[in-house]
C-alpha cells in the first residue's frame, strides 16, 4: 500500500475529442456549440442565457458586459455558463464592427442638428486630440455625441439579435436532444 504502483490514468489526446478541421475558426465554433449542447439545464434556460450573453456582448458597455450578463441571468433565471459562452461574440476583432453598427443605427434616431455633422471617426479623433490637450469641454461634447447614439443603437440591436439567438438556440437544442 505504501509502495504500491500507481495505476495508469487513461489520457485522451485532444485530437480524439474533436475531429480535425481545416481552420482553427471552424474548430473553435464546433467547440462552442459542443459546450452549449453539453450544459445540463432546461432548453429555455440555456437559450435565454445565450440570448442574454449575445445581446449584452453587442452593446457598447465595455467593461460592464460580463457583470451585466451575470446579473441579468440571475434576474431571469437563465443559464450563466451559456450566457458567458455566447458573449464571446464580443471580442477585440468584432468590437469595431459592432460599435460602428451601434452608432450608425442609433444615429438614425437623432435629427441632423442634434449633434454636429462630423463623422464617427472624426469625433473619435476629436476626443483623442482633446485628451492630449486636456480640453474637458470637447471631451464631454464629443463623448456624449458618440455614446448616446451607440447606447440607443446597441439596445435595439441587443433586443433584436437576442430574440433571434433565443429561438435559434432553442431549435438547435431541441434537434440535438431528439437525436
Could you describe the 3D structure shown?
- With 179 residues, the protein is an all-alpha fold.
- It contains eight helices and no strands.
- It has helices spanning 14-17, 24-38, 43-57, 65-76, 80-86, 95-107, 120-133, 136-178.
- Helix 3 (43-57) packs antiparallel against helix 4.
- The longest helix has 43 residues, at 136-178.
- It is elongated, with a radius of gyration of 22 Å.
- The model is unreliable at 9-25 (pLDDT under 50).
Report a brief summary of the structure:
With 179 residues, the protein is mainly α.
Number of helical segments with 4 or more residues: 8
Major sheet:
none
pLDDT below 50 for ≥5 consecutive residues: which ranges?
9-25
Global Rg: 22 Å
The proportion of residues forming helix, as a percent range, comes to 55-70%
Form type: elongated
Total strands: the figure is 0
What is the beta-strand fraction? under 5%
Q: First CA to last CA: what distance?
A: 46 Å
Mean pLDDT: 78
H and E order: HHHHHHHH
Structural class: mainly alpha
Amino acid at each position: 500500500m505504501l509502495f504500491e504502483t500507481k495505476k495508469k490514468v487513461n489520457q485522451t489526446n485532444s485530437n480524439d475529442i474533436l475531429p480535425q478541421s481545416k481552420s482553427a475558426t471552424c474548430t473553435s465554433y464546433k467547440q462552442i456549440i459542443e459546450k452549449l449542447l453539453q450544459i445540463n439545464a432546461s432548453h429555455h434556460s440555456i437559450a435565454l442565457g445565450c440570448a442574454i450573453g449575445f445581446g449584452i456582448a453587442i452593446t457598447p458597455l465595455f467593461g460592464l458586459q460580463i457583470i451585466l450578463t451575470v446579473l441579468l441571468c440571475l434576474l431571469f433565471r437563465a443559464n450563466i455558463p451559456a450566457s458567458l459562452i455566447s458573449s464571446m461574440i464580443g471580442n477585440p476583432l468584432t468590437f469595431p464592427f459592432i460599435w460602428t453598427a451601434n452608432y450608425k443605427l442609433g444615429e438614425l434616431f437623432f435629427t441632423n442638428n442634434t449633434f454636429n455633422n462630423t463623422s464617427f471617426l472624426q469625433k473619435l479623433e476629436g476626443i483623442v486630440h482633446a485628451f492630449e490637450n486636456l480640453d474637458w469641454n470637447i471631451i464631454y461634447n464629443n463623448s456624449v455625441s458618440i455614446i448616446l447614439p451607440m447606447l440607443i443603437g446597441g439596445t435595439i440591436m441587443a433586443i433584436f439579435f437576442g430574440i433571434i439567438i433565443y429561438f435559434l438556440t432553442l431549435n438547435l437544442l431541441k434537434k440535438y436532444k431528439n437525436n
